[in-house]
């Protein structure tokens, strides 16, 4: 059977564009009631029975037997041994990627994550103190898709933020451990690691068990059970976000080699049949050229079947009137990954309002950002870039307001506060302010 | 009947302290399954029927008849008229409070909310672009407890962030409008306002209707229906947080007049019978003095019944070994409001890791912070200050990573990325990087 990758060909000048475009974008995050109920049961069970419940589910779902939870903890020595076992090239790549990711997040902390304060003329001090979380949990998917890069992208910002303890959980179905994942935990400075996964691992982190310490926040991607569990424990602990399928949007002016762009579309499509790859360009001949490269390159790809289905079901090559219109459409989509594959990317960047990460110029393939450019690859999906941000140092910090009202300040502020408090019918508020006034 | 406010008297040296302390702190945010189901139904109905459903629920729950949704919109003229109708002292207090809140949040934006970038030696650009949300919704409770200060605290940071459009919803049961709330909307620069509330208002904002525009994020406190609706639309839109009962913790060294501290405990307790007021002090005689002031002042308070119940059910006066221990206990509680009522507050502040807002020194009553010191009064409750922050400009902004890899950078990064991508079995990722290498 010959595989065909046939992204939809749309044109903004077509009368049916709006409907076609909406149909292509449609993706429903509808939750499965059966999954929701099973997750609720697992959470309640772990909350009550602790380690015993985690052990039982790990045996049932991962086929992993253990006498007790301590047998499911990976020692630091085991993480280091995994690192030492890697080929030299992989070891170096991991370390270089970690170094770049660390230095980007250090810049991020410096730019937006430091405490600040100022004093009013009357001596009143106002500010905000920024402190790291005490302890966080990182969920790392195991089994089929094992992503060591995700270990770096979750653990390093936590480390840079100054988090005291980073607890990793990673399922190892049938006991199969991924050496790259363990090595990444070693490189990223994970404090403790357990070979547990699913809703039971989220529950262990959120509530704590005799063996697994309770954390303050849980980050990292997972399957439908993990996503449902994270959403359910939100409030007891912090969570990062609930990720949908991955997406790339390429804005092209036609100046980038067509095979580069085709491969960039593939690199999103190969993740998942639900992944979405979209190309916007004002040049119809260029869209044709990219389609030709898609056809030529597809048979060479090991994951061709996934790529073909993803591009055919959810991909699109869209002809726009001009680059300005392409930017406007991009803002409507608010993509996770946005490549500006243009000779003049800085002309278009100011027009782009909503995106998880913006990749400027032909040399900036999205895959460089996924692994080692420095910025985080955990990004808002499904249009949530309209209101949320890449995972960052700020996700592992919290802020406390600081207020020190001087005696002089209390005279001015006390009158304003009392007036408004009486207006709201809160007399104790008013009197607490009035007691600080000089008689 | 004589009201009695009898907070628990605990001592950290007592053998039963740990159990007594845990019992006092216990508060369950357990959700009511019946409310959950009704909220789910209301959301689905508004999503399908739009304005018609919102009108029907507003009529049913608020007793408010209207021919169509446009009749439930408050005009800018009406907001201004409400402001003009206020007594001069209230007008001035609102404006002065707004000015201080605005200037604090401008400082916050400058300190942590600006875009940044840097270039590597090889010319690669890395950074983050910070942009405001396009449109946000602010939920303002109506009816019994109407809080104009909450309008300022939600709308002003959004305004300072540069949000394009701020949509306020406020229920007006039986058509009763609160002039101070409308005036606060005028002062804070709300773009549009609708007299709707409950889950139906949250649904209208999250999904949009013919009349109410869809927003990107919803902030602001509300009752159990509003909280459940916000949690349910999380993901479709952003939300701020789910607030529990309000709390104050006072760390006292005994140097503040005891009646000031008693009134500060009242000012939290008067909010709600579930509110929690705790005093920690190493001086037993001072705890006695505060209890005497509680007994003396209680009969003078209009909201004495609520205060008495809140203090008796959930309040505590705790004797600690020393101030260090008091700080450690405070960190376990992670209170919403934390007063350091000490002669030397800067000695203790560095020991305080988790709190929504820290009020330093005897003159800094929490009520000054509630209204007009400048920092936000929307703060994390129920121990969530361990992982979350006051509402701020950052809640109305989002970040996009910026990456521009130079041709030289692509040579270094491409090799690292390809090595790791092959390790993860993602060949298109690897080849997208390799295509950018010079042959």
Automatic annotation (TrEMBL), chains A, B:
The family annotation for this protein states: Belongs to the histidinol dehydrogenase family.
- What positions belong to coiled-coil segments? none
Q: Name one GO molecular function term.
A: histidinol dehydrogenase activity
Catalytic activity, reaction form: L-histidinol + 2 NAD(+) + H2O = L-histidine + 2 NADH + 3 H(+)
Question: What is the stated purpose of this protein?
Answer: Catalyzes the sequential NAD-dependent oxidations of L-histidinol to L-histidinaldehyde and then to L-histidine.
The note describing how and how many cofactors are bound reads: Binds 1 zinc ion per subunit.
Q: Which Pfam families match?
A: Histidinol_dh
SUPFAM superfamilies cross-referenced by the UniProt entry = ALDH-like
Keywords for the protein's UniProt record, in alphabetical order: Amino-acid biosynthesis, Histidine biosynthesis, Metal-binding, NAD, Oxidoreductase, Zinc
Active-site residues from the entry: 336-337
Q: PROSITE patterns under this entry? A: HISOL_DEHYDROGENASE (PS00611)
- Listed binding positions for Zn(2+) are 268, 271, 370, 429
Q: Where are the transmembrane segments?
A: none
InterPro entries referenced in this protein's UniProt entry, alphabetically:
Ald_DH/histidinol_DH (IPR016161), Histidinol_DH_CS (IPR001692), Histidinol_DH_monofunct (IPR022695), Hstdl_DH (IPR012131)
Annotated substrate binding lies at 246, 268, 271, 337, 370, 424, 429
Could you tell me the gene encoding this protein? Answer: hisD
Q: Which NCBIfam families match?
A: hisD (TIGR00069)
Listed EC numbers: 1.1.1.23
Asked if the record carries the keyword Metal-binding, the reply is: yes
What does the record give as its pathway?
A: Amino-acid biosynthesis; L-histidine biosynthesis; L-histidine from 5-phospho-alpha-D-ribose 1-diphosphate: step 9/9
Positions contributing to NAD(+) binding: 139, 200, 223
Q: Which cofactor does it need?
A: Zn(2+)
Name of protein: Histidinol dehydrogenase
């Amino acid at each position: 059977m010959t595989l065909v990758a046939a992204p939809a060909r749309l044109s903004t000048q077509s009368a049916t564009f709006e409907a076609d475009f909406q149909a292509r974008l449609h993706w429903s995050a509808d939750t499965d009631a059966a999954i929701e109920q099973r997750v609720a049961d697992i959470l309640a069970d772990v909350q009550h029975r602790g380690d015993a419940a985690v052990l039982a589910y790990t045996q049932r779902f991962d086929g992993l037997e253990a006498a007790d939870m301590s047998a499911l903890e990976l020692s630091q020595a085991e993480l280091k041994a995994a690192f030492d076992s890697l080929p030299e090239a992989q070891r170096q790549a991991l370390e270089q990627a970690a170094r770049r990711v660390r230095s980007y997040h250090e810049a991020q902390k410096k730019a937006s994550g430091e405490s600040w304060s100022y004093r009013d003329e009357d001596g009143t001090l106002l500010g905000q103190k920024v402190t790291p979380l005490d302890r966080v949990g990182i969920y790392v998917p195991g089994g089929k898709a094992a992503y060591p890069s995700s270990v770096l992208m979750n653990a390093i910002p936590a480390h840079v933020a100054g988090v005291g303890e980073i607890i990793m959980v990673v399922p190892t179905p049938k006991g199969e451990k991924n050496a790259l994942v363990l090595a990444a935990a070693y490189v990223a400075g994970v404090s403790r690691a357990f070979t547990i996964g699913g809703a039971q691992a989220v529950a262990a982190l959120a509530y704590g068990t005799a063996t697994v310490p309770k954390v303050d926040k849980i980050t990292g991607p997972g399957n439908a059970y993990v996503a449902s569990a994270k959403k359910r424990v939100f409030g007891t602990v912090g969570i990062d976000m609930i990720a949908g399928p991955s997406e790339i949007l390429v804005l092209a002016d036609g100046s980038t080699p067509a095979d580069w762009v085709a491969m960039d579309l593939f690199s999103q499509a190969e993740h998942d049949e639900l992944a979405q790859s979209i190309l916007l360009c004002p040049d119809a001949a260029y869209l044709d050229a990219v389609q030709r490269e898609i056809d030529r390159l597809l048979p060479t790809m090991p994951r061709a079947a996934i790529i073909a289905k993803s591009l055919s079901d959810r991909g699109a090559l869209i002809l726009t009137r001009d680059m300005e219109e392409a930017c406007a459409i991009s803002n409507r989509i608010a993509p996770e990954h946005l490549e500006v594959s243009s000779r003049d990317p800085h002309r278009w960047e100011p027009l782009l309002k909503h995106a998880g990460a913006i990749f400027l110029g032909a040399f900036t393939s999205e895959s460089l950002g996924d692994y080692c450019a420095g910025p985080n690859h955990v990004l808002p999906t499904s249009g949530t870039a309209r209101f949320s941000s890449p995972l960052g140092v700020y996700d592992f910090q919290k802020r406390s307001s600081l207020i020190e009202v001087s005696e002089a300040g209390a005279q001015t502020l006390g009158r304003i506060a009392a007036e408004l408090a009486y207006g709201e019918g809160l007399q104790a508020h008013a009197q607490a302010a009035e007691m600080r006034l000089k008689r």
